[in-house]
Amino acid sequence: xxxxxxxxxxxxxxxxxxxxxxxxxxxxxxxxxxxxxxxxxxxxxxxxxxxxxxxxxxxxxxxxxxxxxxxxxxxxxxxxxxxxxxxxxxxxxxxxxxxxxxxxxxxxxxxxxxxxxxxxxxxxxxxxxxxxxxxxxxxxxxxxxxxxxxxxxxxxxxxxxxxxxxxxxxxxxxxxxxxx
Length: 180
Fold this sequence. Notes:
Mean pLDDT: 85
Radius of gyration: 28 Å
Structural class: mainly alpha
Low-confidence stretches: none
Helix content: over 70%
Oligomer: single chain
Number of strands: 0
């Protein structure tokens, strides 16, 4: 039987968990804001320097050379920025996922405990129904674990593909810049 104290304790634990996850999310947002401010400052300073250099160009060849030289660093910086954003997002998501998984395990253990208590206190003759209940619990646990494995594999594939695409784009820009 569930008591009022158990309900209050559960609500308190859930509130603390939600607060912790909110703190993790805000930490991720703070990192993104810091990254964006740093990138904006750097871009502003680099743009000013580039504008000065372009205005000081003595002939069209120097002007076009300066413009072409600008492309490669921009692509590399954009790729680096995207990697930073991705790292922040995946780090934050990973932390939140761990918190959620811990709460799910805790909830599964509580449900499992309630099922065991129900099975122990079940009236005589209800053994087949109790066996079916335990089997259903086991099947749901197995399904949950399968989904977790599939999500992890999909995430790893997506990370690998993102890395490959980023590297290919940076190499393409370097190659194009060298041809000019």
